[in-house]
Design a protein that fits this description.
The protein has 457 residues and is α/β, with parallel strands linked by helices. The protein has 13 helices and 24 strands. The longest helix is centred in the first third of the chain and has 18 residues.
Length: 457
């Protein structure tokens, strides 16, 4: 990326964006950053809670006179050039004047429809809703190419950060053994108290005190660390969704469908993500995975960052790098290169400027459906049950997210977020993969996009 050229263009060329899900946490970070960038313009903001959206904009320092609430297409079209249009209905976006849509509803069917409308109008799309991308990302990318515009992941979000890091690594000719990210919140262990804090929860885990180093048997240590958590869940549906986006953009696949989720310290990653014959946990190379950060209170957070583990290729080079503090495995066969940050909407303007001013995407120009974000029933589901989607991580009721290499997935497997708010068309056995025939009441347009993405370009 040529930052000098990018910001030179930005200094004289306004970039106007539309934002859906505009009152959400990600959106706040983007709007706050926008306040520091005069030529990045939030032309139209859409959220079901328009009064709350107005209050957020005022809190962030946007001028009250600029905020114009509209309930009709005519009103949107008539808004002043410098107005920030606030709407509740996504259908009103089409008449607004903007260059790029930032789609952040998190709703698979609505987000897909918004993206299609924008692309058909030859507007760029930055997809923050991983739920949409996991089902329809391939089809949307192809539509964008046909329309001569950009469909892209968003910098600051973990998928885009990791996709870029994988691309950087490959450009250097390094062989990727594993690539991944940390889970959302660190496990912070205090040896003085034997307690672990994760976000706003603190619980006893005294056994962790003797497990702070990997020892000679890495899988055994990782299993003991897991046991020390006393059954606490440390995976999230959102992780699977994000890694499915990474997979389609990098052609990396999972080693196991639930991913390994090792509890590991940053300095251990090159040893943990080694092949089994070298003492690690991997059955193959070229995989994507998520780990849970274990750290002490005084140690820096991984901050939702991303990593790649590569094979070392020249012993003196990597010995020198190890001496400089880089993470190299004990046997010196693997190294971990990582970015310990996750800036959300603070960094997303880079994507918006790159797409509009340079016609460049943050992700792959030709993604492929090499992985499938699917779901297994956690218990028996009876016909007629509505599979609601909700919660912070957009879980689907009664369904465990799994990430499968497409080669291992049945032809009739349903993408997880086609099931969101759909109804079970028949009884589904516990542990069964959800299939297309198991569902009814979903968006047929979204299914068509999924099936189109499975076909060769």
């Amino acid at each position: 990326m040529n930052f000098q050229l990018l910001f030179a263009d930005h200094a004289r060329t306004p970039v106007r964006y539309a934002l859906t899900g505009a009152k959400g946490g990600f959106s706040r970070t983007l709007l706050a950053q926008t306040r520091l960038m005069p030529n990045l313009v939030p032309a139209v903001l859409c959220d079901l809670d328009v009064p709350g959206l107005r209050a957020l904009c005022l809190e962030l320092g946007f001028s009250e006179t600029q905020l114009v609430e509209c309930i009709s297409a005519q009103a949107v079209a008539a808004a002043a050039e410098d107005a920030i249009v606030l709407v509740a209905d996504v259908a009103l976006l089409d008449t607004a004047r903007y260059d790029i849509l930032v789609e952040a509803t998190g709703n698979p069917a609505i987000g897909h429809a918004c993206a299609v409308t924008a692309l058909n109008a030859k507007r760029h799309v930055a997809m923050v809703s991983k739920e949409v991308d996991s089902v329809a990302g391939i089809a949307l990318s192809r539509l964008a190419a046909k329309q001569g515009v950009v469909y892209t992941t968003a910098d600051g979000d973990q998928p885009a950060n990791l996709i870029g890091w994988v691309s950087w690594t490959r450009t250097l000719g390094l062989e990727i053994v594993a690539a991944g990210k940390s889970s959302e919140y660190d496990l912070v262990f205090d040896p003085a108290t034997g307690m672990i804090t994760q976000l706003d929860e603190t619980f006893a885990a005294p056994a962790m005190a003797s497990l702070l180093t990997l020892g000679d048997d890495i899988p055994a240590t990782l299993a003991a660390r897991r046991a020390a958590l006393n059954g606490r869940k440390t995976s999230a549906t959102a992780d699977y969704c994000e890694m499915s986006v990474v997979g389609t953009n990098t052609e990396l696949v999972t080693d196991v469908e639930l991913m390994h989720y090792p509890i590991a310290r940053t300095a251990e990653l090159a040893d943990v993500y080694a092949l089994r014959e070298d003492g690690g946990i991997l059955g193959s190379t070229g995989v994507i995975d998520v780990f849970n950060v274990l750290r002490l209170p005084e140690e820096a957070s991984f901050a939702g960052g991303v990593f790649v583990v590569v094979r070392t290729h020249d012993s003196p080079t990597w010995e020198l790098l190890a001496q400089k503090g880089h993470v190299v495995s004990r046997n010196r066969r693997y190294a971990c290169l990582y970015l310990p940050y996750h800036f959300m909407g603070v960094e997303t303007p880079i994507t918006l400027l790159n797409a509009v001013l340079h016609n460049r995407a943050s992700g792959s120009a030709t993604p492929s459906q090499c992985v499938v974000l699917a779901g297994r029933a956690t218990s028996a589901i009876t016909a007629g049950t509505v599979l609601n989607m909700g919660g912070h991580h957009h879980d689907v009721t009664g369904v465990q997210a799994v990430l499968l290499p497409r080669a291992d997935a049945p032809d009739d497997v349903a993408p997880l977020y086609l099931a969101a708010h759909a109804t079970a068309a028949r009884d589904i056995a516990a542990e069964a993969l959800i299939t297309l025939d198991d569902l009814k009441g979903y968006s047929p347009v979204l299914r068509a996009a999924w099936e189109a993405g499975l076909q060769p370009a």
